[in-house]
Amino acid sequence: MKLYDFDGMFDKKLSDYISKNAGKFKEEEWEDMIPQMYAKFGNTPIKSLGTSPNGYYAAMSSEELVKCLRAHVKNGVPVSEFLCKAIEARPECRAMLLPLLERGEEGLKQYAVNILGSADEAIPVYMRLIATEEDEDFKNQCADFIKEKADLVMEQAIENYNNGVERPLMLEILSKVVRRDERVYDILLKEFRSGDDVPLHAGFLASYGDERALPYLLDKIDEDGISYVEFQELKYAIESLGGEYTKQRDFSGDEYYELIRSHSVSSVDIFSAFQDGAEGSDGIKN
To answer: Which residues contact 267 (CB under 8 A, 6 or more apart)?
Structure first.
């Protein structure tokens, strides 16, 4: 099997084209053009090859495509998007990629997870990986895909939580479960009522979407001494569950509230990361 650096070929053609057309296009125009040129290159026949990059991979069997990926990584030949998309387009390739995740072959895990994404077959494997994976970025990437299909691994997430395995990640996963389950609700509510990291655990209750959490959220937001950050996340959680909190509160002296006032930045702008873009009055007494 011959390995081709199609990205290297494209980069050379692109460099030549840019040199010939220097000054004709603005930077943002190039940014729009380059992906289109790359896609066109994928369907352009290469004389020495007798076919296009996409045609080259289309002629391979599914087994050959996965072997080609492994050979590229092993030999340090850049892996093109054309190869990745060819593998992604073959559902039968998924079963062949799963062992690459579990064996942890050098350099292959990342390609495998990028191609598999949130495929049903991959979710249980990701669950096993995050219990042992040392690379935090890779672990979080797996968790993000799991959260898209959290119902598939609800039982395992509950078991891991009860056994103290990656509890923070298990809570995130459980908060994305669509199915209503008393065990999930009880776990998320217990963590919220513990008083630890109120914004985080209020967000988990909001994500899970069980309206029975409203009285607990309303009781907490009414407490004296909560911070402005806690207030904002609690208010968002209450509103996301169909509730409302209108009491005026005075947060003068709170570090984050004063920061907002001093910079004339709206609370929605500052806390958008917490609230996923939620809008509405902040209920703050000025």
So the answer is: 232, 260, 282, 284
Q: Which two tokens stand for residue 214?
A: 């409203």
Q: How far apart are CA 244 and CA 231, in angstroms?
A: 13
Rounded to an integer, the average pLDDT of 235-263 is 89
Would you say 207 and 177 are in contact if contact means Cβ atoms under 8 Å apart? no
Cα–Cα distance, 173 to 276 (Å, whole number):
17
Question: In angstroms, rounded to a whole number, what is the distance separating the alpha carbons of residues 60 and 1?
Answer: 10
Which residues contact residue 234 at a Cβ distance below 8 angstroms, ignoring those fewer than 6 apart?
Answer: 198, 199, 202, 217, 220, 221, 226, 245
Neighbours of 79 (CB within 10 A): 21
Q: CA-to-CA distance for 200 and 168, rounded, in angstroms?
A: 10
Coil vs helix vs strand at 22: coil
Residue 276, pLDDT above cutoff 60 = no
d(CA 153, CA 283): 39
Q: What is the pLDDT of residue 269?
A: 53
Query: pLDDT band at residue 134, thresholds of 50, 70 and 90?
Result: confident
H-state helical runs in 177-254 = 182-193, 198-208, 214-221, 228-240
User: What is the predicted pLDDT for the residue at 284?
Assistant: 47
CA distance 24 to 6: 26
Q: Which single residue is written with the structure tokens 């790359």?
A: 38
